[in-house]
Amino acid sequence: MNAISMNDYLVFCTVLFSIGVAGVLIKRNALSIFMSIELMLNSINLLLAAFSVYMNDPAGQVFVFFIMVVAAAEVAIGLAILVMVYRHTHSVDIHLLNRLKW
After folding, report:
1. What crossing angle do the helices spanning 30-54 and 58-89 adopt, rounded to 10°?
2. CB 3.0 to 4.6 Å from 40: which of 20, 35, 68, 78, for a disulfide?
3. CATH entry 3.40.630.10 includes domain 6-96
4. What's the pLDDT tens digit per position in 69-96?
5. Is 93 exposed, middle or buried (CB count within 10 Å of its CB: 0-12, 13-18, 19+)?
6. Beta bridge pairs of residue 93
7. Are 31 and 92 within 8 A, CB to CB?
8. pTM of the model
């Protein structure tokens, strides 16, 4: 059985990142945009972990772990903000959220 090459990781992560960018640019729902940003972050994490294994350096994997911890905190805070916005406006459409003040 053949091992996955570094080129395969590069192509896969590039496709994932491109899907995330397309989601951010096309979607109007704030939750979909938030998930697209997380997809982009996770594609970069996967690529960093692949480079870490390829270079035989465990420091990259530790760095990926800390990025995932920060991303989990970001998800919790982002979803809390989205819930508060939904309670106030009854929508998560980004075009309705063009002002910072209530």
Report:
1. 180
2. 20
3. no
4. 999 999 999 999 889 988 888 888 887 7
5. exposed
6. 29
7. yes
8. 0.85
